[in-house]
Each structure stands twice: as structure tokens, then as C-alpha cells.
Design brief:
The complex is a heterodimer.
Chain A lengths: L4 E5 H11 L3 E4 L6 H12 L11 E4 L3 H13 L4 E5 L1 H16 L5 E6 L14 H4 L7 E4 L3 H18 L3 E6 L7 E5 L3 H7 L2 H9 L19 H6 L2 H22 L6 E5 L5 E5 L3 H14 L4 E6 L1 E3 L3 H7 L6 E6 L10 H15 L9 E7 L8 H12 L7 E3 L24 E8 L4 H15 L3 E8 L7 E9 L12 E6 L4 H4 L6 E10 L7 H4 L2 H9 L3 E5 L1 H7 L7 H12 L4 H16 L4 H17 E4 L21 H11 L32 E5 L9 H5 L5 E6 L14 E2 L10 E6 L9 H5 L13 E5 L4 H13 L13 H4 L18 H11 L3 E5 L3 H7 L16 E3 L6 H25 L1 H4 L1 H9 L5 H23 L6 H10 L7 E7 H7 L1 H10 L4 E6 L2 E2 L5 E2 L23 H6 L5 E5 L5 H13 L4 E6 L12 H10 L6 E3 L1 H5 L5 E3 L8 H5 L3 H9 L1 H27 L11
Parallel strand pairs in A: 2-3, 2-4, 4-5, 5-7, 6-7, 10-11, 10-13, 13-14, 14-15, 16-19, 19-20, 20-21, 28-29, 28-30, 30-31, 31-35, 34-35
Antiparallel strand pairs in A: 1-8, 6-12, 8-17, 9-11, 16-18, 17-18, 21-22, 23-27, 24-26, 25-26, 32-33, 34-36, 36-37
Chain B lengths: L4 E3 L2 E3 L3 E3 L8 H10 L3 E8 H16 L22 H14 L4 E6 L3 H14 L3 E4 L12 H18 L4 E5 L6 H11 L3 E4 L7 E3 L4 E3 L11 H10 L6 E4 L6 H10 L3 E4 L1 H6 L3 H16 L4 H4 L17 H9 L2
Parallel strand pairs in B: 3-4, 3-12, 4-5, 5-6, 6-7, 7-8, 8-11, 11-12
Antiparallel strand pairs in B: 1-2, 9-10
Helix pairs in contact in B: 1-3, 3-4, 4-5, 5-6, 7-8, 8-10
Classes of the chains: A alpha/beta, B alpha/beta.
Chain lengths: 1198, 329
């Protein structure tokens, strides 16, 4: 039967089968598996039917723990149920997985396998998560490619129904989950043929049903629990044969034969690699190459890892085997070896002991590879085979890194390649914002669906959310593609931005005779001279062809803005001659129609125009034979950077992190602060420029700047010594800090993202030309050099003394140095201004617990991180534990700090005689209520430490132990500020239980909820904070329930400080809330409106959205301060005037609301009405609370 | 008492037509208008520019951040189909047609010939009984002559006329150097009716924030003097029906317009101010007046006070202005 060929990624392949063969789907977002849930939700939203002609029920839960609980429940009630997850998410499912397996329940969990957070989080692929589930009793089935993902998803579903053992079907995160491949799509008939109806009914019948009641899930005692556990043995014994049976049945249907263990390579192979996952594809490719060269090598692919079928395994090995390398994509520190290795050793050993081994006992070594999607290439694979040739192959080796600490790594020759000429290889360097990846995904689809070629696309993104760069790797050709690694010998290289040429040596991977396409503003006569020397050299030496286009010109002329995707795609097809030009253009236009058709005729026409205009603007440049350029590649960081930044960070920035040896890495995940300031990204085309004449010195721009790139200082005349001539300053308008002072507002133009929020909030207008404000956007490049010098000068001007700054006013508070700067957050981010404010007000004594999410990524993702120190070396101490436990994590900080403080005080009292009663009393009784008092306390502690040091030097008088302890604890005598920061996904959903507990504890912690109303980091999935009537992923038809009122829930405790703030509506209110929350000696929670790209808004004007949200009454500003209650006042103050505008006027400023009116107009009309009612009801409720007379309870003195 | 009229070849039960505005966004209001006695309803304008902007906005906001970050390759679940731009409007025409028996006149403001013709065709297909072309070209280009601007108007009318079979009316503005010539040319180009006059949006300056702010002011009864004069001037001299808009508040206003020569009066501001029920009041007053003055039909009075039928036509002419001023002395 002819089946449809589709070009899709692994996640879609898995979701396709899962959706079709299940009735209930419980989901929760986590990278890289989120897309599987998103596909299912999107299909359900348009009523797509499964193979039983019904729409599966797709539900999002509050965590993976919750999802697995619901899966368990639905299974126990007889529904075919599935879920998708990865990494920590899978770990959260483990408790239920034991139950599900223990109860012999048929289900398949589809897992895009990912690293587990240890010393650091990583979103990328390896088998650490799957390996952590080995003891649950789930069967583990591994797919190696996108085709296999679709095939095994179905085989697993068929097998679990028959075997009654639940399955994890896993594939490599990103490498397979996100790789786009042309595959054959299974039909509904295929799926129906594989799923046995009787088994489905049997599954249903095992479900709980009061008409035929039973109980399952009893508690058992020592007398029978053990026996109960052993009852399942026959099912596990039978499972492998059942899987093989389903694989055989599948082969009859589709012609693709799989086995529990698939051997490929020389029939008489002596050296064998055994492994699972996508690496098998590259290994098979390498084996083919080596066998062709006459080498006796082979590969055994493990498909069914659990239950591990020893007989089948040993039989699958060629009898000629002499040495085996077992490769594990995981690490188990302290184990005798990694899991698959131990299984292999055990299997061969058991067979040997039973005298059933049909070959001599081979040498077996284990090795680790590919952690966190580390490249796994033919060069590395060859090195593994080479190791096996040795008399004493290195055991417990690593491959792919330089492990120079215990020297476990194998050397490999990076130039070794098995790629052939038949396959086209292209690398495309682009910006996230220019649409390069989307265009390449389209190209792969066009080629995949327009030719008989095999096609593969893989996409690499950097970890910044603004100005991010992408590299697309495209392969296609007549031969099946097994290259599961990045392209390092490209026939085609495209640079979609000229500036990249100075940052990356992109032509180093070009083959001889390759083609280079450059998007440049420089015309063809002058472009050669604009290239760096290295690029010229490569173009000449490699005899390359060179094409240029001014894509931005074409984009401008056709209304495409910065989206050059269609243009670059057209260039690619025009140059590469995959199709005759006319056909190529036809196919591109068909694809445009398909992609953009639903978005309107204008968009389609715009793209058509771009295609037509491209060809006439594409030029071939004849490569001269002479190097004319002296332009060199830019160093990643300045020479002034600290050694660690130069030696380690800079390598990561320049894309050479793979070459960093283990010895350069911190052993426990500890990294220095203040590293973003060394990574000058220069991503803004336009930056704000200050006009001192117009400026009223309100510092509102400084307050809203998400990246701390616009700063104000007040200083004395003497500080101007040595100022660059272009440095701008003016008289300081206020006399609050003395006479004759100066004021300057400086922009770090190389760090600015160009969001223009500062310009939007600037209240001062030029009197002659009202279009101008006190800050205006101007082109960055012409002023880059001068402003670099100005910034350096400005940065070194002393800050105002914190002791005197009137922190309670926005204008003054913004003179405090931000200790959170230049993060990788989105341009115009709505979260970071709040985070920055914490760092300004309390950063030098803050300890921060950060929930996983956007804030932990822009706050803690290498290569550089934004948390910074001040001139005294103090700054926020920051850590990220997990997503779900952040409140508890921060609570732990508080417990430790309070404990240290008590211990220090206790010890201090013992030294009253030696250090002086006055000092001891002063330290112990210090209230430290403001910056001046904190400063004094620091001085006292410093004096104390000096005295203690002196005592130690003087012999310590038998008290050395106490002195040392007190010295190590003395810093805790200075007040510390504990901040617990995270998004709404954490606070409202996954972490709510912990958050609630910590609020109830009464301890002095400050909780900052950066409320974007969706899971922003994973792409905008619905949370319980998502408002009614808004669209979010997992709520494609609009959220039908109201936003959870977290503030009101917190207020219910009575002793929690609660504030709801929106910087764009009232910055002074925000500031006051932060100060009050911190000052309150108990739990505080601030719920901060954080606009987000997931709202679909103009980020440069987003403060207006915040204001509208407040004016509509949707986002009331308030503060609930328990201190007031103690003073006999109403603790609740409603600080905004709501219901000034209809909700619609706010909501329809945002695409998240508006798109529902375009996709589901009737539902949208109904939901917005309900949402308006929510607002009115809530507002009245708040008004009532604000009007309450406080209840006075007389205490009985008797 | 016959208050029926004809307009654009359609027989209307009353010369009171509800004009393009926010009230007609709701089908229930359109029903109410019919019940109150409206002769026809002109829907709010479909703006080509707005459709394009909405498409662009949706496109940008749903795709600008796609494929930039490994954990979030998109931020919206895209529906497989949007109901974009004209779809919503066309659906509104269909619903309005299904809800009432009185004619539904669709209104269109486009910025390109392609937009004018394709949207007009779609409106016809959706069931509109007639079209009102809201041609709105503010001549800001100092290099463009009056001739050029006028030509564009005429081209638009010709292009639309060639694509649709339903009658079309053109909503004119009063700023042509020769209003009469232009009215005639539009009529010759195929306009079945002329609506006098379009009121331009008049921006204001916000002194507090130093911003230009939109300032929509409801027309006052005084505003009717301008269309009144031109309807009186044009009646009987061009081959197109005349419709009056701006400042029509009362039965007296309707009567004056009918006598000047209008086929219908479009009413908006009065309805916004007094509610849809105002139509019934005006209708009652209209009938009462006619009864009192013994008029049998609207047709009887039509054009009776027009330029060609009044005793002293010069009173409609420019010199009139001077005389009025003199009379104050």
C-alpha cells in the first residue's frame, strides 16, 4: 500500500500515533516534549478524531506528578491513556509509574529523553531520565530516528495491551524529537490493524466499575507483600516475545522489520558497539563505511531495553565477536558502570556461566557519550572501534570530550568523516528573529515532498531570548540519511547576517567548491573588501562560489520588515538548482500559501512579492584571487575580562565550548557573577540616546529598562575628570544630595536590546519638536565606539552612597546600582524590571531561590549570567533548585540563615569580655531597618571580625574553635534578604503546594511571582493564572475559567504581606510594595504583572498594556500589610481606580485575546463577556475588603 | 399617508435610513431599527486598511518570536483557520440579511483598486442589497493636483461598477473645487446614488500630553445646512439619487431634506444620542406634520424646495452668504 510521505519531527511522529490510539491524554509542558502535548491539544481543538472516530480528551495538569496521577486514574477506570514528558518531569512521574506497573496496566508514555539537572540544568538530550525509571517495572523501548518514533509508538501501544506491562517509548531529546525528517506516515488502517479490539475491551473491563466492583491498591503486610510483587514475573517473561510478535506483525503491514536487538555490520565482526538511541544511526553509517573498507566491525542496536531479553540479546551478537564497547548516554556516578554496560556484562556472564555462550568470552568495556546532546560523530565512533582493537581497551571511557582530570576520554580525529558527495549538506546561520529556521523547515518540506529524496533538518538555537542566533543543518539526497550529527562538511553555507562573519569562522566547515550565500547591504562591487580576511582566504582556497543578496532591502520593499526568511529561502533554491528555477518558485509559493494562507491574503501576497523580487536582487560575485582584507575576527571578550571569563566563558561565547576540557569546569556547578558585562552582543540596531536639555531627571526610563542598560548617576564635578568629549551630563535638578551636583543618563549601547520601552515611558517632550522626547532611538552603529568609551567612563563614576539615597522614591531608588544586568531575556521583557529592582534595593544582601523557567534561564544559562557584584564584591547569591520546589528551597535558605544568625549571636555573647560589651550589645540589638543602619552593622561586624582575627593570631586562649566558628558565621549578623522568585507556572501550578506551605510558615521570606499568565519559557502554555477569554497553548479555544486569585488566597492567612503590582501602571506603587514586603518580618508575596511575548503585543509599548490592565480593573493594584492590622487599621489598601475602561479595551490590545475573535468569534464574544463580569465581581469584592472596619478583639487580661 | 421612498432602485418603507456606525454592529440593534420603522440600514464601513493591519498584526505577533529559542519554537497554537478581515464583515451581512426584511447596504472603504473591487464583489455575494462606497482620500500630497485626485475617485467608481450588479452609492465629501461637476462625473461613472456628505475625522491636540488625539464629535443639527444646500442644488440636475447625512435629528430635518430633493436621510448621531427608538418618534412626527399640512406622500414634496423649484434660487447661491451677513447689520 502506498503511504503518504510526511516531513515532520520526532515529537509530531509520536504525538500522531499517541493521539490516534488513546482516549485520554494528560499533559504538562516540559522541554523537549512539550510539542507532543501541543500537537494533541491543537488537534483536539479542531475535533480531529482518533482511530475509534472520537476526539480524545486532552487535559493539562498542574505538574507531571499530577499528569501521571490522572493517567493512573484514567487507566484504572479503563481508558486508553497516555502522556508525554522528559527529564525532571519523568522523575515526578516515577511514584505513579511504580503503581501503574505494579497493577499491570497497559499504557505508553512517550518520552523525549533529556538530561537531568545535577550541577546544572540542561534541556538537551540523553538517557539520564529514562535510566532513572529502570526499577519502576515499565518496559523501555528505544527509537533511533523519526521514522522509528512513529513505528515504535504504535508497536509499543500494541505490545502494552497484550503484555499488560506499561511502556516508556523513548527517543533522544532534540536530536530526534526536533529533527525534521521525511518519513512514511502510518495510516489509520495500519493503526487499527495493530490494535487488537479484544485487548482494548479487556483493558476497559479491568477498570473500576461500581457495577462490578473490586478494590485495587490495598496495603499489605510482611506476610504477603513480597509474594505479591513476584506475581508479575510471568508477564515480564512473556513481554519480549510479545514485542517481537508485534514487530513481526508490523513488518508484514509496512515492510519495516524490527527486532528486539538489531545487528548491523560485518557478519564476521570482531569489534561490536552496543547502544540505544539516535547515536545508532551515526554508528550504522560509520559501520557501513568501515565495513566497506574491510573492517570487521558491527553494531547491535538495543530496541527493547526492559525487560532485557538475555537470550535474544546474546543470540543477536555475531559469534565472531572479540571485543565489545557498550555505549551509555547517561552517567551514574559511583556505579560499577553505566546501566546498559552492566546489563551486557551480566547477560554475557550469565550465558557464560550457563555454558550457553557460543563464542569466547569477549572483552567488554563501557563508555559514556553524548550527554546533553553532546555531538556524537563518525570520528568519535571510529575512535571507539579503534579502542576495541587494543589489547587492553580503555574501560569506562568517555568519548566526545576532553576528560583531562581522570583521563577517561578517548582521542579522536575530528577530520574523519563518512559523509558522501551524494548527499547535499547545507548550513544556514541566522537570527531567531529573521525567521531562518522556519524557512529551512519549509525548504526541507518542499524538498521532501517535491522529490524522491530523503531529507533531514536539524536546528541549533543559542540560549538567549533576545537577539538569539540559529544554525540550521539541512541534508537531502537519494541515500537514506543516518547522519545524526551536525554538518561539518557543508556544500552550502549561508550567512543571513553579515556581522556573523566577524563572530564565527563559518567557512571552516565548507567543502572545496562549496557555495557561500551572504545577506549584505554592501553591493557586489564592494562586498569583497567588506569580508574578513579569513573569509576571503577560505573563499579563494576552497574555490568557492559566492552569492550575495540585500535581503533587508527586498524585505523592506515588500513589507516583510525584518523577516527575511522567504527571501533567503528563495535564494537557496535559486542557487542550489535542486529544481529548475520556475518549478522551485512554484513550490515555494505553494508552500507560502499553505503556511500563510490562514493568516490572510495580505501576508501571502507580501511573501509572493518577496519571492519575485528576490531573484532580481541575487547576484553572483566572482571570487578574486587576491586577499585584500585586514579585517580580523572579533575576540569574544575584552582583554580586561577576568581570567575565568577569558579562558572559559569566552570559549563558550565563540562556539568553542565543546573544546573546553573537564579541568576547566567548576566541579560543583559554582560560577562567578558579573559575566554578562563581558559579552558585548551588539544586537540592537537602534538604541536610546539622551537629550539632557529635555530631560526632567525622573529616572522612569531607568526603572523600566529590562536589561539595566540605561542608568542614571549623580556625581560631583571632580568625577568628570577625564570624561570623553562626547560624554553627556547636566546639572542635577535636585538639591537632595547637596549643591552643585551633576546628573548623567548613560546607555550601554552594546548591551541594549533596542526594545524602546524607555522611550515609551519617557514623560518629557521636546518643546520645539514634540515627536522627540528626552530619550530617542537612534542608529547604534554610528555611535557604538563613542558610547562604549562613555559607558566605561560612566560605569566608573562612583555611585551615590546607599546610606543617603531616598530609596522610597522611584527617581532616587534608580540611583542604586542594578546587580542584575544585560540578561539574555527578550527585548522589552516584562519580568526583568522587577528582578532588577530587587537587585537594586536588596541585592547586596540577598539570597535568591529561583524557580526553573524564564527567570532561571535568562538568570542562569551559560555562557554568561546577569547577576552581578557591586564594587565591594557583594551581590545576590543565586541558585536554582527545581521547578516545583522553589518556595521550599528558599525557605531552606531562611532556616539556615536564621540558624546561622542565632548561632553567631550565641557565640558572640560568649566573647563579650574580649570584644567589648558595647560592640556585642550594638550588634545583637541592631534593628538594621534601613540602608544606613545596615551599613553601621556591617562596620560593627567588620570590627568584630578584626578583633576575632587578632585573637586568633594572639593564641586564641583555648577558644580557637569558637572563634573560627564565629568568624565563619559573623556575616549572618548582618540582615539577609531571602527572595523566592519564579513565574506563574511555578507559583500557581506546580509549586503551589510548597508556596502555600511556606506562606503559612510565618518565616521571613519574600516571594516574587513574575506573572506572565502562561508558561513563558516553554512557549506559552496555559497556567491557572491564564485569564478567561485568552488563548494559550493547551487552551487553544480560549481559557474558559477565571484566573486563580493567588493574592486573595495568600491574604486568607492574615499574616502574609501581599501586594499586586504593575510597574507600567504605577511605578511608585511597585517600589513601595517591594520595600514594604522586604521590611515585613514574615512571609511576603508580590504578584507582579509581567507582560510577555507570549501575549502577542508590541513589547516596546507594553507598559501601556499594563496601565490598561489596571485601568480596566482586571489587574487591581493593592497592598495587604498585616502590620496595619496590628495598628488597628484595615490591612488592605486598594491602590488603583479600576473599571475606568471596559475590559475589551485592554484585552483586545493583545493577540492572546484578539486571536480568539478571529478563530472562534462566537466563543470569544461569550468569554469576554464572562471575563468582564469576573472583573466587575472581583473589583466589588476588593472594594468591600478595602472598606472593612478592622475587627478589634479585646484580649482578656484575667 | 405614504412615507415610502425609492433609493438606488429599491423601494423603502421610510426615508429614514440608519447610517454606518457602531449601532449596526449588533444584529439585535438592526432588528430594533427595522421595528422602529427604518427604511434601510447602512452597515459600518469595512476598512481595507484595517483588515490588512489586523492580518499583519496577527502575523507578526504570532510568528515574530517563533523558532528563536530551543524551548519555545512557537508561542501560540495556531488555529487551522482564522476568520480574517472581510469574513467577519461578510458574516455580518449574512446575519443582518437573515434577521430583517429592510435592505442592507454594505459600506466599504478600500485603499487600492484591487481592494475596492474584490471586497465589493464579496459583499454582493454575501447578500448586500447595495453598496455605499466610503471614498476617503485626504489629498495631502502637495504634488498631486485636484484633477488627479478626482480621477482616482472616478476610477474607483468605474472599477466597482464593472464588478458588481447591485446599485452603488458614493459617499462624497464637500471639498472638491467643483462639487457639482464632481457629482455629475461620479454619476456618469456609474454611481446610482450620492451620499452628502462624508465627515472627515478631525484630530485635536491634547495639551497635557502634547499628543494628537482622535476626537469624534457627533454632528449637530447645524451640520445639516451643508448637505441641505447641495442636495437642493443638485436635485434634478444629475442622474443619481441623493441621500442626506450629517445633522439629521428631527422630522423637520427629514422634511427639509426631502423638500431639498433627497431620497433618503441617513441618521446616526441622533440615534446615538436618543437611542434607536428615536426613529419611531421621528416617523410619528413626520406623519403628523404631513397630516397637518395635508401632504399625501413624500414623493409629493420631493425637490419642492430645490434650486430648480424655489422662488428665488439665488438664495442657495454663494451671494446668499453675503446677504445673510448684511442682514445682521
Amino acid at each position: 500500500m502506498e503511504r503518504k510521505k510526511v516531513t515532520i519531527d520526532g515529537n509530531e511522529a509520536a504525538a500522531y500515533v499517541a493521539y490516534n490510539t488513546n482516549e485520554v491524554i494528560a499533559i504538562y509542558p516540559i522541554t523537549p516534549s512539550s510539542n507532543m502535548g501541543e500537537w494533541c491539544d491543537a488537534w483536539a481543538a479542531v475535533n480531529k478524531k482518533n482511530i475509534w472516530d472520537m476526539v480524545p480528551s486532552v487535559s493539562e495538569l498542574q505538574s507531571e506528578g499530577g499528569a501521571s496521577g490522572s493517567v493512573h486514574g484514567a487507566l484504572q477506570t479503563g481508558a486508553l491513556t497516555t502522556t508525554f514528558t522528559a527529564s525532571q518531569g519523568l522523575l515526578l512521574m516515577i511514584p505513579n509509574m511504580f503503581k501503574i506497573a505494579g497493577e499491570l496496566t497497559s499504557t505508553v508514555f512517550h518520552v523525549s529523553a533529556r538530561s537531568i539537572a545535577a550541577a546544572a540544568l540542561s534541556i538537551f538530550g540523553d538517557h539520564s531520565d529514562v535510566m532513572a525509571t529502570r526499577s519502576t517495572g515499565f518496559a523501555l523501548l528505544s527509537s533511533n530516528s523519526v521514522q522509528e518514533v512513529m513505528d515504535f509508538a504504535l508497536i509499543a501501544q500494541a505490545a502494552t495491551l497484550e503484555a499488560r506491562i506499561p511502556f516508556i517509548h523513548f527517543f533522544d531529546g532534540f536530536r530526534t524529537s526536533h529533527e525534521v525528517m521525511k518519513i512514511e506516515q502510518l495510516t489509520k488502517e495500519d493503526m487499527k490493524a495493530m490494535i487488537d479490539e479484544d485487548l482494548v475491551i479487556a483493558h476497559r473491563k479491568r477498570g473500576l466499575n461500581p457495577d462490578n466492583p473490586f478494590m485495587r491498591g490495598t496495603a499489605q503486610n510482611p506476610d504477603v507483600y513480597f509474594q505479591g510483587r513476584e506475581t508479575v514475573n510471568p508477564f515480564y517473561n512473556a513481554c519480549p516475545a510479545i514485542v517481537q510478535k508485534q514487530m513481526d506483525k508490523f513488518a508484514k503491514l509496512t515492510g519495516r522489520q524490527y527486532n528486539l536487538f538489531d545487528y548491523v555490520g560485518a557478519p564476521d565482526a570482531e569489534r561490536i558497539i552496543i547502544m540505544m538511541g539516535s547515536g545508532c544511526e551515526a554508528t550504522e553509517e560509520t559501520v557501513d563505511y568501515l565495513v566497506n573498507k574491510g573492517e570487521k566491525v558491527g553494531l547491535l542496536k538495543v530496541r527493547l531495553y526492559r525487560p532485557f531479553a538475555i537470550d535474544n540479546f546474546v543470540k543477536a551478537l555475531p559469534k565472531t565477536v572479540k571485543s565489545i564497547a557498550v555505549l551509555d548516554r547517561t552517567k551514574e556516578p559511583g556505579a560499577g558502570g553505566e546501566p546498559l554496560y552492566l546489563d551486557v556484562v551480566n547477560a554475557i556472564s550469565e550465558k557464560y556461566m550457563a555454558s550457553e555462550l557460543q563464542f569466547a568470552y569477549p572483552k567488554i568495556v563501557g563508555g559514556r557519550y553524548g550527554l546533553s546532546s553532546k555531538e556524537f560523530t563518525p570520528a568519535m565512533i571510529k575512535a571507539v572501534y579503534d579502542n576495541l582493537s587494543k589489547d587492553k581497551p580503555k574501560a569506562h571511557f568517555t568519548i566526545g570530550i576532553i576528560e583531562d582530570v581522570t583521563n577517561s576520554s578517548l582521542d579522536f580525529d575530528p577530520t574523519f568523516s563518512v559523509e558522501t558527495d551524494e548527499t547535499f549538506t547545507g548550513k544556514f546561520y541566522g537570527l531567531g528573529a529573521d525567521g531562518t529556521v522556519g524557512a529551512n523547515k519549509n525548504s526541507i518540506k518542499i524538498i521532501g515532498e517535491g522529490t524522491d529524496y530523503y531529507a533531514q533538518g536539524y536546528f541549533v538555537y543559542d540560549s538567549k531570548k533576545s537577539g538569539s542566533t540559529t544554525v540550521s543543518h539541512l541534508r537531502f539526497g537519494p541515500k537514506k540519511i543516518k547522519s545524526t550529527y551536525l554538518i561539518n562538511k557543508a556544500k552550502f553555507v549561508a550567512s543571513h547576517q553579515q556581522v556573523f562573519l566577524e563572530q564565527w569562522d563559518m567557512l571552516k566547515d565548507a567543502r572545496d567548491g562549496a557555495t557561500f550565500l551572504l545577506n549584505t547591504k554592501v553591493d557586489k562591487e564592494h562586498v569583497w573588501d567588506s569580508l574578513p580576511e579569513k573569509v576571503q582566504k577560505d573563499l579563494i582556497n576552497k574555490k568557492m562560489k559566492f552569492y550575495i543578496i540585500d535581503a533587508y532591502k527586498v524585505a523592506n520593499e515588500t513589507g516583510m520588515g525584518v523577516r527575511i526568511n522567504t527571501i533567503m529561502q528563495t535564494c537557496f533554491f535559486a542557487i542550489s538548482n535542486i529544481f529548475p528555477q520556475e518549478k522551485a518558485i512554484g513550490l515555494i509559493k505553494d508552500s507560502i500559501k499553505k503556511t500563510y494562507g490562514p493568516k490572510g491574503d495580505k501576508i501571502v501576497q507580501m511573501n509572493f512579492d518577496a519571492v519575485d523580487k528576490t531573484v532580481e536582487n541575487l547576484f553572483e560575485v566572482k571570487v578574486p584571487n587576491k586577499i585584500t582584507s585586514k579585517l580580523q575576527m572579533q575576540p569574544a571578550v575584552s582583554g580586561n575580562a577576568p581570567d575565568f571569563v577569558k579562558e572559559v566563558t569566552a570559549k563558550m561565547i565563540s562556539g568553542e565550548g565543546d573544546l573546553l576540557p573537564v579541568s576547566k569546569m567548576p566541579v560543583d556547578g559554582t560560577f562567578p557573577l558579573s559575566t554578562t558585562r563581558w559579552e558585548k552582543r551588539n544586537i540592537a540596531l537602534e538604541v536610546p540616546v539622551w537629550d539632557p536639555e529635555t530631560c526632567i531627571q525622573c529616572n522612569k526610563c531607568v526603572m523600566v529598562c529590562p536589561h539595566a542598560t540605561i542608568r542614571a548617576k549623580v556625581f560631583e564635578e571632580k568625577d568628570l575628570a577625564g570624561a570623553p568629549t562626547t560624554f553627556k551630563y547636566t546639572k542635577f535638578k535636585s538639591k537632595d544630595y547637596g549643591e552643585g551636583l551633576y546628573y548623567s543618563l548613560q546607555v550601554a549601547v552594546e548591551d541594549c536590546t533596542g526594545c524602546s520601552l524607555c522611550v515609551d515611558v519617557c514623560p518629557a517632550k521636546n518643546k520645539k519638536e514634540t515627536k522627540l522626547k528626552a530619550i530617542n532611538m537612534a542608529e547604534q552603529l554610528p555611535i557604538r565606539e563613542q558610547e562604549r568609551a562613555n559607558w566605561d567612563f560612566f560605569f566608573n563614576i562612583p555611585d551615590l552612597d546607599r546610606k543617603v539615597v531616598a530609596v522610597s522614591k522611584v527617581k532616587d531608588a534608580q540611583f542604586l546600582q542594578p546587580l542584575f544586568e544585560f540578561s539574555g531575556a527578550c527585548a522589552g521583557c516584562g519580568e526583568t524590571p522587577y528582578v532588577k529592582l530587587v537587585s537594586q534595593l536588596f541585592g547586596d544582601r540577598a539570597v535568591i531561590a529561583n524557580a526553573t523557567g524564564c527567570s532561571s534561564i535568562y538568570g542562569g544559562n551559560l555562557p554568561t549570567t546577569p547577576w552581578a557584584t557591586n564594587k565591594d564584591g557583594r551581590g545576590p547569591a543565586w541558585s536554582n533548585s527545581l521547578f516545583e520546589d522553589n518556595a521550599e528551597f528558599g525557605y531552606g535558605f531562611r532556616l539556615a540563615i536564621d540558624n546561622h544568625n542565632l548561632q553567631a549571636k550565641d557565640l558572640l555573647k560568649r566573647f563579650a569580655a574580649e570584644v567589648g560589651n558595647d560592640l556585642v550589645d550594638a550588634i545583637i540589638n541592631a534593628s538594621q531597618k534601613d540602608e544606613a543602619e545596615i551599613y553601621e552593622q556591617r562596620e560593627r561586624v567588620s570590627a568584630l571580625k578584626k578583633k576575632l582575627d587578632d585573637m586568633l593570631k594572639a593564641g586564641a586562649n583555648g577558644k580557637a574553635s569558637d572563634i573560627k566558628h564565629l568568624l565563619s558565621l559573623a556575616d549572618y549578623l548582618v540582615k539577609k534578604s531571602v527572595w523566592i522568585i519564579g513565574g506563574d507556572g511555578w507559583a500557581y501550578d506546580i509549586g503551589y503546594g510548597g508556596l502555600d506551605h511556606v506562606m503559612a510558615s510565618g518565616r521571613n521570606v519574600n516571594i516574587l511571582v513574575l506573572d506572565t499568565e502562561v508558561y513563558s519559557n516553554t512557549g506559552g502554555q496555559c497556567s491557572k493564572s491564564t485569564p478567561r477569554a485568552a488563548v494559550a497553548k493547551f487552551a487553544a479555544g480560549g481559557k474558559t475559567s477565571a484566573k486563580k486569585d493567588l493574592g486573595l488566597m495568600a491574604m486568607a492567612y492574615g499574616n502574609v504581606y501581599v501586594a499586586r503590582v504593575a510597574l507600567g501602571a504605577n511605578d511608585q506603587h511597585t517600589l513601595r510594595a517591594f520595600l514594604e514586603a522586604e521590611a515585613y518580618n514574615g512571609p511576603s508575596i508580590i504578584i507582579a504583572y509581567s507582560h510577555c511575548i507570549a501575549h502577542g503585543i508590541d513589547m516596546g509599548k507594553a507598559m501601556q498594556n499594563q496601565k490598561a490592565a489596571v485601568d480596566s480593573g482586571y489587574w487591581p493594584l493593592y497592598r495587604y500589610n498585616p502590620v496595619l492590622e496590628a495598628e488597628g487599621k484595615n490591612p488592605f489598601k486598594l491602590d488603583s481606580k479600576g473599571l475606568k475602561i471596559p475590559l475589551k479595551d485592554y484585552a483586545y490590545m493583545e493577540t492572546r485575546y484578539k486571536m480568539l475573535t478571529k478563530s472562534h468569534p462566537d466563543e470569544a464574544a461569550l468569554l469576554i463577556k464572562e471575563a468582564q463580569n469576573d472583573v466587575i465581581k472581583k473589583w466589588k469584592e476588593y472594594e468591600r475588603i478595602a472598606a472593612f472596619e478592622p475587627i478589634k478583639i479585646e484580649t482578656n487580661s484575667h | 399617508m405614504d412615507i415610502t421612498t425609492t433609493y438606488l432602485g429599491m423601494k423603502l418603507k421610510s426615508p429614514i435610513v440608519c447610517s454606518a456606525g457602531p449601532l449596526v454592529e449588533k444584529i439585535s440593534n438592526i432588528r430594533e431599527m427595522e421595528d422602529a420603522g427604518a427604511g434601510a440600514v447602512v452597515l459600518y464601513s469595512l476598512f481595507e486598511e484595517q483588515i490588512e493591519n489586523e492580518e499583519l498584526e496577527l502575523y507578526h505577533h504570532t510568528s515574530d518570536h517563533d523558532e528563536s529559542f530551543a524551548e519555545a519554537t512557537s508561542y501560540f497554537t495556531e488555529p487551522f483557520k482564522y476568520k480574517l478581515g472581510p469574513e467577519e464583515y461578510l458574516e455580518h451581512i449574512r446575519k443582518a440579511k437573515a434577521a430583517v426584511d429592510i435592505p442592507i447596504i454594505a459600506s466599504l472603504n478600500a485603499k487600492s483598486i484591487g481592494g475596492w473591487t474584490s471586497y465589493a464583489k464579496k459583499m454582493e455575494q454575501a447578500g448586500a442589497d447595495a453598496l455605499e462606497l466610503n471614498i476617503y482620500l485626504l489629498p495631502t500630497d502637495i504634488h498631486k493636483s485636484g484633477n488627479d485626485v478626482e480621477k482616482t475617485y472616478i476610477e474607483i467608481v468605474k472599477a466597482v461598477k464593472s464588478k458588481v450588479k447591485i446599485p452603488i452609492a458614493v459617499k462624497m465629501h464637500p471639498f472638491f473645487s467643483s462639487t457639482s461637476w464632481m457629482a455629475n462625473e461620479l454619476s456618469k461613472a456609474g454611481a446610482d446614488g450620492l451620499v452628502l456628505f462624508n465627515r472627515f475625522y478631525q484630530p485635536d491636540i491634547d495639551l497635557e500630553n502634547l499628543e494628537v488625539v482622535p476626537n469624534v464629535i457627533l454632528s449637530t443639527p447645524m451640520a445639516m445646512r451643508l448637505p441641505l444646500r447641495w442636495i437642493a442644488m443638485l436635485y434634478g440636475r444629475i442622474n443619481a439619487d441623493l441621500a442626506a447625512t450629517s445633522g439629521v435629528y428631527s422630522a423637520e430635518d427629514v422634511l427639509k431634506m426631502m423638500m431639498a430633493g433627497a431620497k433618503v436621510t441617513e441618521m446616526l448621531s441622533a440615534l446615538l444620542k436618543f437611542g434607536i427608538g428615536h426613529i419611531a418618534d421621528v416617523t410619528t412626527n413626520l406623519k403628523n406634520w404631513m397630516e397637518e399640512k395635508e401632504y399625501e406622500s413624500i414623493e409629493q414634496m420631493r425637490g419642492s424646495m430645490s434650486y430648480m423649484n424655489v422662488e428665488d434660487p439665488s438664495k442657495f447661491e454663494r451671494a446668499n452668504y453675503m446677504k445673510v451677513l448684511n442682514s445682521y447689520k
